[in-house]
UniProtKB/TrEMBL annotation:
UniProt entry tagged with the keyword Nucleotide-binding: no
Annotated compartments: Cytoplasm
Pfam families for this protein: FBPase (PF00316), FBPase_C (PF18913)
Name of the molecule in the record: Fructose-1,6-bisphosphatase class 1
UniProt source species: Confluentibacter flavum
Top-level taxonomy: Bacteria, Pseudomonadati, Bacteroidota, Flavobacteriia, Flavobacteriales
Binding, Mg(2+) 1: 93, 117, 119
GO BP term (any one): sucrose biosynthetic process
Annotated Fructose-1-6-bisphosphatase class 1 C-terminal domain residues: 205-330
Record note on cofactor: Binds 2 magnesium ions per subunit.
Gene3D superfamilies assigned: 3.40.190.80, Fructose-1,6-Bisphosphatase, subunit A, domain 1
Length: 335
């Protein structure tokens, strides 16, 4: 008889004591994210039937045209976190500035801050291709009892307490880490519960997939160009297979399962790269390392970068360890 799968709720409770800070607050926080994920999933699944696809008409702080689902997901995650009174601050790709949670947490007793990319890969919404949500959780640096400050958000990725993503794909999955490995949970839509389907996820040490927007090729630094040529060369187990969804979450998820590398290099069109350190690179890098993979900006470990601004962008190289090592060697060689 098949073994009964653990629900995400059960898993969170069972693993509560192994958290670095086991007051139960982090469990509540993860449960809020689980709830918001289900609400956003429901809306994503209806795209095409209700008036939720297309541009909202606004431009976000990143200079991007916001999609209606960007706005919807942003509101849902923020509202859920504020209403449940478990965070003291939130920063989002879709918000100009960080939010200090004063309404529910009047005395500023909450310890955790959350940074989110509410909807990742939003250019894929209109064409029914996988999108995601990315979250990153830190303990505040400033003492409780006062409002959060920018310093609470500008912490190195190595300080993350938890991070994860939801991928709204052929099935919806929530994948997260609290620094003790990576576990993946699949939503059973008939029941509305996430079940542990991918315990202890690990990147294969090597892979054969490379994921990069090659349309930007001519603008890439020489080291990246050389590495792409290496991926394409017929030799040994190469050429590698090119796979690029255009949604970091989905590209990362596939590469973690199959073995591969994701690149969003510095390119002269979009200096210094496109991906946001705080909402995208840090949480994905934490997951990568927890799954025996690797993430860097080509030279420096992502989790060691000291952020200087909320919406900072960095080059990003992430995936199977041997592949990232090889890519870094090409970058160093071309310096
Ligand atoms: P977002 O939808 O949150 O703004 O993120 C989009 C990011 C990332 O998900 C994806 O890998 C990358 O942008 C795609 O960029 P290009 O279209 O330039 O390849
Ligand atoms: Mn965006
Ligand atoms: Mn994104
Ligand atoms: Mn986004």
């Amino acid at each position: 008889m098949a073994h009964k799968k653990q629900t995400l709720g059960e898993f969170i409770i069972e693993n509560q004591t192994s958290f670095k800070y086991s007051s139960g607050e982090l469990s509540s926080l993860l449960n809020s994210i689980r709830l918001a994920a289900k609400v956003v999933n429901h809306e994503v699944n209806k795209a095409g039937l209700v008036d939720i696809i297309g541009a909202s008409g606004d431009v976000n702080i990143q200079g991007e045209d916001q999609q209606k689902l960007d706005v919807y997901a942003n509101i849902k995650f923020i509202q859920t976190l504020i209403n449940r009174n478990i965070v003291c601050g939130i920063a989002s790709e879709e918000e100009d500035d960080f939010i200090s949670v004063n309404s529910q947490d009047e005395n500023h007793q909450n310890k955790y801050i959350v940074l989110i990319d509410p909807l990742d890969g939003s250019s894929n919404i209109d064409v029914n291709v996988s999108v995601g949500t990315i979250f990153s959780i830190y303990r505040r640096k400033t003492p409780v009892g006062s409002p959060v400050t920018l310093d609470d958000f500008l912490q190195k990725g190595s300080q993350q307490v938890a991070a994860g993503y939801i991928v709204y794909g052929t099935s919806t999955m929530l994948v997260y880490t609290t620094g003790d490995g990576v576990n993946g949970f699949t939503l059973n839509p008939a029941i509305g519960s996430f079940y542990l389907s991918h315990p202890n996820m690990k990147f294969p040490i090597d892979g054969k997939i490379y994921s990069v927007n090659e349309g930007n090729y001519t603008h890439f630094p020489q080291g990246i160009k050389n590495y792409i040529k290496y991926c394409q060369k017929e030799e040994g187990d190469r050429p590698y297979t090119s796979r690029y969804i255009g949604s970091l979450v989905s590209d990362f998820h596939r590469n973690m399962i199959k073995g591969g590398i994701y690149l969003y290099p510095k390119c002269s069109l979009l200096e210094p790269g496109k991906l946001r350190l705080l909402y995208e690179c840090n949480p994905i890098a934490f997951l990568a390392e927890q799954a025996d993979g690797k993430a860097s900006d080509g030279l420096t470990r992502i989790l060691d970068i000291q952020p200087t601004e909320l919406h900072q962008r960095v080059p990003f190289v992430c995936g199977s360890k041997n592949m990232v090592d090889k890519c870094e060697a090409f970058i160093r060689e071309a310096q």
